[in-house]
Design a protein that fits this description.
17 strands, 5-stranded antiparallel beta sheet, 3 domains, 23% helix, alpha+beta, single chain
């Protein structure tokens, strides 16, 4: 790796070999309460690639000599807080080692070192949460276009949340969406004239792979927070995905307006707003 890659500073590669301990089953025989569970050990290797940096220059006060002295430190410091890259092998799934996967860490979010993954780990990159979201949005754009009203988008999110909730109740593994599932979501959301072949071709166009399955929780905004941000020239609004159905974009007197349905009069600077009627010019 160092023969092919050039780093701006000196780097230090650290390897750690350890064991992950997990309580195992006691077995079928009756055991005393004082006896502890059997511990299963899973070996792992952790690697961290860190850059070095020279320490900052400082002035020290010598109380004996009663004078300031220059503190000179020539030993470089290893920056352990922000590794350039690293990995954990194998990963642990439900308490068991999975030797077919490796956990990779990068310096910056969504900035994967392709050379490190391919030549050092000898692994294939998997799709990130951001990748799933981008692919889903592009596929939907290919099928229905890049324009959609808030009512339809809200129904799309609701359908996906129902899929997630159903799998949570059944205690199955995290749900994923293939092109058939995306087609079903769009149809249940009221989007007409959607065919299986059309959605399949959209997957092929966007990612060149019709067998891809997108993690359902990655393609929708977080339901526990106001994760949908609506930015306008006048104001910014943040809402939860399930509240998107109360928002509409309408035209009044030829002007685009953002309308939010509320259950009670709103308060602005201590004043209760009086409902106003909207009139359209003929």
């Amino acid at each position: 790796m160092f023969a092919e890659r050039h780093y701006e500073t000196d780097v230090v590669v650290t390897f750690i070999r350890g064991n992950y301990y997990r309580a195992g089953n006691k077995g079928h025989e009756v055991r005393d309460e004082a006896e502890t569970d059997v511990m299963n050990a899973h070996s792992f290797i952790m690697c961290s690639v860190n850059k070095t940096q020279m320490p900052k220059s400082e002035l020290l006060f010598d109380y004996i000599e009663k004078e300031f002295k220059y503190n000179m430190v020539v030993d470089p410091i290893i920056n352990l807080k922000t590794p350039l890259s690293g990995f954990l092998f194998p990963i642990f799934t439900e308490g068991a080692s999975d030797v077919n996967r490796v956990l990779y860490g990068a310096e910056k979010k969504f900035k994967i070192d392709d050379y490190f993954v391919e030549h050092v780990l000898n692994a294939q990159e998997t799709m990130t949460a951001e990748d799933d979201k981008i692919v889903f949005e592009e596929v939907v754009n290919q099928v229905v276009g890049d324009q959609m009203n808030t009512s339809t988008l809200s129904k799309v999110y609701d359908e996906i949340f129902q899929v997630i909730d159903y799998h949570d109740e059944e205690e199955e593994e995290e749900p994923r969406l293939d092109y058939n599932d995306v087609e079903a979501v769009l149809k249940k959301s009221g989007i007409e004239d959607v065919s299986t072949e059309e959605v399949k071709n959209a997957f092929d166009t966007v990612i060149n792979d019709t067998t891809v399955e997108l993690k359902a929780s990655n393609v929708v905004p977080k339901s526990s927070s106001k994760s949908i941000k609506i930015k306008t020239k006048v104001a910014d609004v943040a809402i939860k995905p399930q509240d998107l159905k109360y928002v509409r974009q309408v035209k009044v007197d030829g002007k685009l307006c953002l309308m939010i349905e509320v259950e009670e009069n709103t308060m602005i600077e201590g004043f209760e707003m009086i409902p106003e009627a909207l009139f359209k010019n003929d």
